[in-house]
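Notes from the pairing session

We agreed to fold both candidates in a single pass and log them together. This is the raw record for the first candidate, unedited. Please don't reformat it; downstream parsing expects exactly this layout.

Candidate A
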Amino acid sequence: MEIFKVLEQYGYEQLVMCHDPASGLKAIICIHDTTLGPALGGTRMWDYASEEEALTDVLRLSKGMTYKNAAAGLNIGGAKAVIFGNSKTDKSEALFRSFGRFVEGLAGRYITAEDVGTCVEDMDYIHMETNSVAGLGTGSGDPSPMTAFGVFQGIVASAEAAFGSTSLKGKVIAVQGLGHVGYILCGLLHEAGAILHVTDINEENVARVVKEYKATAVKLNEIYDVKCDIFAPCALGAIINDDTIPRLSCKVIAGAANNQLKEDRHGDILQAKGVVYAPDFIINAGGVIDVCDGMSEGGYNAERSKRKVANIYDTVKKVIAIGKRDNVPTYKAANTLAEERINLIRRVKKTYLKK
């Protein structure tokens, strides 16, 4: 990978490699764009197979955060961080405090929070070294419930577009990934009367959802073959691809996973097949909206945050409407929504302001 060519092509601002032998920390911080404000994005801890895999992940995720934050109307830019390691065996106070010192070294340009493999307790360790961290135990806390609530709102909006009704009663929904967000989402879908087929790499997660929400367990690679109305990807990205699209029978794809399309052209294929696709950075913005509320003057307000997250329903409908108006796939419509706001604020910021 020619790093500087990639940074230039997609408008990245900064890439930081973090290494601390004492704690075993190996991490990458990527700041994509700070036009709208300091860049916010979670820290993911994952046992990457290679450095290139981790770099590709952090690049994709940070750009997605820029678009997510812009489309959600937030005054923050986009960034992401990844830490190499097994989140079940490699965590330590020293690891996260060391990472916190690297975050502090960015002087407020990057604000971190939870993501896959990290939790509130990890953020509290990071907070011992920097104030540039959100989602703390004393603030908004774990953003997963709000992420799930936002995804649920997006599913309802997508179902209305596909089936002509907001009701999910009797709808068969295949959920891939039953972590913090996927588990909570299953509860909301079950309460709405949906019939669930679920899978996860962790068998305990599957057993819990089967028991609590009367779901049907499906093997990992068989989730794409479930005869369903809605497919909700809530695990990792690039799962909408040449191999999986022919196997999907759903009319809606709407879930919490980031970077669901392996390539943009897969969004074109979904449109041609008549599938309503809720772009990931639109539908999964509930967590970052919640985290940003915790950064407001006066502190976190749960009711206010939930009202903001509920607006994801309207944002998904707006994206679908733009797609129909311009005859473009929804992923392009979502990009347009985000880019127009970024470009507008970039022009506004040309006006000199003394600080």
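Candidate B (folded immediately after A)
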Amino acid sequence: MSPDKTVFDNFPQYIADHYKLITQIGILMNIISYSNVTEVPVAVNASKLTGSARYINYRNYLYPRTRRNIPFEIKGSIYNNYLQALKYCDILDIKHSEKEIARTAPNIKNYALHLSRYHELRNFYNGTSTNKAKTYKINKSKVRKRLIALCRLNSSKRFLGFYSISFPLNAPDRTLYEIWNKFLTNCRRRYGLKTYVWVAERQKNGTLHFHMLTNNRMNIHKVNKAMAASIDTSVRQGKLTWGQSSVSLYNGVDVDSLQHPKRRQFETREQYRSRLNEKRKHSLSERVQFAIKYMTKYMTKTDNVFVHLPFHCSRDVSQLFTSMVLTDQDMERYTRYMSDDENDYTIYSDERKTVYAFKKKPNDMLFNMLDRVNNYLYEQYWQKDSPS
């Protein structure tokens, strides 16, 4: 079946030519992402974009991902990850077993998870499901890349709001997720929320807390009142209690614009001036980095398992690309934008790959092509004739 009309038809030729597919055997694959550079010495199809949940990059074009119902097999990312896991088992000459991967190759334990997820889905498809409750863990790398992709959009440079949402103490997870989903729906329908990334955080007291990043302006007073009303509804239904708080006292939705310091709230004049001067010392890019680190910092300190999704983003964000896969030849044009000082990276290495995680903010030119493509996709998405 021929793919649908590509979204690169209106791209300048020099951009389209940049993404030609180069297939070589036995070369070094280089992956440039928003958070690191990775070298993997395996045979690959290089010089392409990856990370989008909506498009596949092939040769000079982007093709929409399609879903097909095939009765004899499970198609999609779970099946593709399963095949990739089998491939690595063959490379390492080990059994296709989750336990074997965990025992002999703990550095790629995510492939054991790929096998597990596929087997769970396969058992359900065959009617042999164990009815085991599905659990989730936060993929910190994925979350960070999505956050950076959102922050680097042109629309985000005009406004970027960082929301923190808290709830009454000891509120149950299930009820909070019900409230959270209603709140997001309300914000989309009534307050202009379109583009966002959110993550869930479990505080030390055990109560969930949510953080959200968006480039849409919303009236904080109306948003806070809407959340208070949603919580109060659950209180009246007996699903949770206010504790020492109440609907009239609730002020659990907090927002700060990363472009402009927050206005004075319950501070002395001296405290306000001190905080204002401190924020003015930092550039917008530094404040964006702060927001990203704040939203992901707790992931490094905990290995919490969630029974609901701990992270989600709007479709216009999930479609964005977050990395480029390059051959050594194509990589040469990017090395001039990278530091030669090893102290500027946190380096992880084994016999299969070497990861150079950025300690400092990398040169923006390193992501010039990714930014161009993502801004184009974002603008196309919100055009009236854009596919849903």
